Amino acid sequence: MAIVWSAEREGVRYEVHSKGKKLELYANGVQHSEFHPDRLLTGSVWDLLWLPALLQAPDRYQRVLVLGLGGGSLIPPIRKLLNPETLVAVELDAPHLEVARDVFGVADMGVETHLADACQWLEDYQGPPFDLIIEDLFAPSNEQVTRAVPASMQWQRKLESCLSEQGMLVMNFGDWPEYRDSALSGNKALRGFASRFRLSCSDCHNAVIAFSRLPARSVKLRRQLATIPELSSKEARGRLDYHIRQLD
């Protein structure tokens, strides 16, 4: 392992570690992003954030919004597998955005990046709705993996207001109790959505929750994976670690 980039900003120590070709971004010792130039799959939580999109046809997602870009782990699979016409990413933390642009190279992948607070950015946004919103907001100063924005009904409604009529909302929680104890685990959170799923993996404690406007079943995801060469090869099947459970 070697440290290939580092910075100290406002009491937070940022480092990018290289392990062969793989690059990992850390803030205060907590890993926030991962990038490998030859792989779409990480075998960890970042795969869980874009996987729910495959519950529907990939070409359905023409406009995609990522709130909490980090180092940009989600951008290569979104660009390769969904290839939306518009891909927008919002990141509050300047060093994270610097790593995404200059170290991981996501600026060359057709993504429009904004250095901004996601809550304020959504409040100010007046453009067309998005077909997929991935909300992955975790503070870099946290020594434990917990959400930076409370998962309230008000926050979900704000996200939902920017979602298209056939869209999907994906939200990341530090663990299952953080989701279970939030307002979004109740029936009110399903208003306006037809299906809800939990995704998890053995590599982390995170609970990723996907809300789909359209009815969906997990078997559709498995079928989609089988049709995509980058995800159905023997190597990919060995790396892809996920469990999906329908909650509605």
Explain this structure:
InterPro entries: SAM-dependent_MTases_sf. It comes from Alcanivorax sediminis. With 248 residues, the chain is of the alpha/beta class. It has a single domain, classed as Rossmann fold (3-Layer(aba) Sandwich), CATH 3.40.50. It contains 9 helices and 12 strands. It has an 8-stranded mixed β-sheet with strand order 7-6-5-8-9-11-10-12. The longest helix has 10 residues. It starts with a strand and ends with a strand.
Number of domains: 1
Radius of gyration in whole Å, from Cα? 17 Å
**Discrete helix count:** 9
- What is the CATH topology assignment? Rossmann fold
**Which segments are poorly predicted (pLDDT under 50) over 5 or more consecutive residues?**
none
Compressed to H and E, one letter per element, the order equals: EEEEHEHEHEHEHEHEEHHHE
Major beta sheet, strand line-up: 7-6-5-8-9-11-10-12
Structural class per helix/strand content? alpha/beta
Beta-strand proportion = 25-35%
β-strand number: 12
CATH architecture: 3-Layer(aba) Sandwich
Text of the CATH class:
Alpha Beta
Share of residues in helices: 25-40%
Q: Overall pLDDT, averaged?
A: 94
Shape: globular
Biggest β-sheet description: 8 strands, mixed
CATH superfamily membership, which one? Vaccinia Virus protein VP39
End-to-end distance: 43 Å
InterPro entries: SAM-dependent_MTases_sf (IPR029063)
Organism: Alcanivorax sediminis
Protein name: Spermidine synthase
Pfam families: Spermine_synth (PF01564)
